[in-house]
Write a structure and sequence with these properties.
Helices cover about 65% and strands about 0% of the residues. It is mostly helical.
């Protein structure tokens, strides 16, 4: 096995773990709404999850390890990615804030400030900021 195969395999497994974590959050209430299913369809495509892997993960998301980001910056980067996906095309409609809040909690943000964080993240996306600006604004929001 070549180094590129190892990298591709590791990247693919991380994407599957990341997707499975999102599926767990989306299925917290025991089912997926039509909006959530559409969101997961788009996310699977972006993460290069095959239809077979998609079905497998939906059937048993607990089979895949959770890879929560340890560093605050990594959590913010993942929040940026998830916020962009939630905000894109308004796929989730009025549920976008609700599901982003659930994702933010799953990423390790505290219940005490999660509403502020999701509001700030969505407002930054409305402004069309890039990752660097997002990170800067989110890291300096209390200062």
């Amino acid at each position: 096995m070549s180094i590129s195969d190892l990298f591709d395999s590791g990247f693919k497994n991380r994407n599957k773990g990341h997707f499975a974590s999102i599926v767990r959050v989306a299925m917290e209430n025991g089912h997926l709404s039509e909006e959530e299913r559409h969101f997961l369809d788009k996310l699977a495509n972006q993460l290069e999850i095959s239809p077979e892997e998609y079905s497998e993960i939906l059937a048993n998301p607990m089979r895949y390890p959770i890879n929560p980001p340890y560093l605050h910056t990594q959590r913010l980067e993942r929040l940026y990615d998830l916020s962009r996906m939630v905000y894109a095309d308004h796929v989730l409609g009025p549920k976008q804030k609700e599901i982003l809040t659930r994702f933010a909690l799953a990423l390790g943000f505290t219940p005490g400030n999660v509403q502020y964080i999701t509001d700030k993240a969505l407002s930054l996306l409305v402004l069309g900021v890039d990752l660097d600006t997002f990170l800067f604004e989110m890291q300096h929001m209390n200062k």
